[in-house]
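re the bet — no i am not wrong, look at it urself. input seq straight from the record:
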Amino acid sequence: MLAHDAEILTRCELPIEVEDDVVVVRRKVKLLAQQRGFDAFATAGVTTATSELTRNVWMHARRGTAVIEEIIDDGRIGLRVELRDSGPGIPDVPRVLAGGYSTARSLGLGLSGSRRLVDELEIETEVGRGTTVRMVKWTRF
């Protein structure tokens, strides 16, 4: 798991069951980033990445879960967001991470763009079983 040595300060689990849950998850991450002293760019980055990947859960699986954790590691404060679903899975992760590939008639920049907005990102997926995406964004001091 990302930032595996990090201590969890708080943990929140939110369902993704209706389209409006994308906004709920996004708002929670934005609020926590602001409360933890993320600068405007870091807040925008983690909020945008969370929104994109939560929307992916909704678009491809129609339901899932967001786990949001405030973490600390060696004095650094961060947010770790895990989005998981039991959807179709991703058959070609390298192709998706390269950008421009979509099965939902979009620009195909959700995963590839999100990877550039956060400090750490990992994907576990199995076709027919689902996908888990974990990302971490650290504060900058």
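see?? Residues 64 and 85 are 4 Å apart (CA to CA). told u. also The chain has one domain: 7-138. so pay up
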